Amino acid sequence: MSGQRFEAVVPLADLPAGRMKSCVLEGREIVICHTPHGLFAVDNVCTHAYARLSEGRLRGTRVICPLHGASFDVRDGRVLGAPAERALAVHAVRLVGGVIEVAIEP
Ligand code: FES
């Protein structure tokens, strides 16, 4: 459990509710989602083929892939809609002094 290393990504003020923000942390593409249930961070690359979820749509806590329409719950990464079958990796998020920080899960 120790060793989680959070990195500052973006001020909360720059990520309005209902929006997404992509970033690269430790070489990994991540998308931060500001939902009605809070902030969540998941891998940005769809597990079906290859598309960036940040270029799709965020509806509540559901992110929809722009390429073939798979959808995922950003709270736990699970698949909500085909054709994806594998869940997204989820990363820890915290808010420190108004700045969103993310820790990459190995
Ligand atoms: S790449 Fe996302 S649904 Fe196909």
Main sheet makeup: 6 strands, antiparallel
Structural class: mainly beta
Poorly predicted sequence stretches spanning 5 or more consecutive residues:
none
**Strand portion, in percent?**
over 45%
CATH class: Mainly Beta
Order of helices and strands: EEEEEEEEEE
| Bulk shape | globular
> What's the CATH architecture?
3-layer Sandwich
Describe the structure.
The strands form two sheets. This protein has a six-stranded antiparallel sheet with strand order 1-10-9-4-3-2, with no helix packed on it. Strands 5-6-7-8 form a four-stranded antiparallel sheet, with no helix packed on it. The chain contains no helices and ten strands. The mean pLDDT is 96. The protein starts with 5 loop residues before the first strand and ends with a strand. It has a single domain, classed as Rieske Iron-sulfur Protein (3-layer Sandwich). The chain is an all-beta fold and 106 residues long. The structure holds FE2/S2 (inorganic) cluster (FES). FE2/S2 (inorganic) cluster (FES) is lined by residues 46, 48-49, 51, 65, 67-70, 83-84.
Question: Can you tag this structure with a few keywords?
Answer:
47% strand, binds FE2/S2 (inorganic) cluster, Rieske Iron-sulfur Protein, 4-stranded antiparallel β-sheet, mainly beta, 6-stranded antiparallel β-sheet, 106 residues
